[in-house]
Write the structure tokens for this entry.
Amino acid sequence: MDINQVRYFLNLAETLNFTEAARRSRVSQPSLTRAIQRLEEELGSPLIYRDGKHSRLTALGRDIQAEFMRIELALRNVREHSESTVLGRHRVLDIAVATTIGPAKFTAFLADVLGQLPSVKINMHQLLAGEGADEVLSGKYHACILPGMPRPNPKLNVVPLFRERFLLACAKDHPLAGNDVVTTGALASYPYVDRLACEFHTQITEHLMDNDAVMQPRFSAEREDWVQQMVAEGLAICIMPEHSAVVQGIVTRPVQGMSLERGLVFVTVSGSGTPLEIRKIAQLAARHDWS
């Protein structure tokens, strides 16, 4: 097995078309076909069902695709690390964060990372709806920060960071801001804005209903900044994680009887294929004082 076979098979797995895969690989179709056949002979089983326009990967082919993607990522990491060292470049790391996670608890940590790893440049990205740990496994991001534990996977390294409660959020001059603890019944007296991106949306709604607080929001939004601007201007209240506020003028208060909380985690791919810098960041995250 050689590196070219890895590249050829990944192109074939993506296109399911030998002609297109050969074009992407910049080889003739017969050369690519022979390389795939040699790979199948070495592994002892077909990797693709050859059925014209209906070609598809076998079960083994899908497994091999996942492993080859890790190999390709590791090779890319080696090249980037070598170039960064030889040419004195910064190593660019792409880290994604869930939309509901605010930056307040991370600024000191990121400053520590950049101070201890001077050769690193970090690009922060926003996870799209439905994205998570799979985007780390695919190589789209080097790491991600999630609002909860991903599905168990031996290929993932998961570092717990800190836990945060869900609290009432309101404007600093809102009538409820004068309370140390707010009763659930008091919430129903004020306009409520619905955070559609909230991972605990169902649990929050059930808690409010169980305590006879039927909230009927007339404004809902997936974007946290829109929700928080409404709250900061005193036009509505909402339930949000205690460290997620990014708009000035918002205060948070505990809600009586509400014990919902979430645990944030830092997720990377496990193993030697992970960039050394990402492994160091994960170690720093595990040792950081998040309090």
Remarks:
- DSSP finds ten helices and eleven strands in the chain.
- The first strand starts at residue 48 and ends at 49.
- The mean pLDDT is 90.
- The radius of gyration is 24 Å.
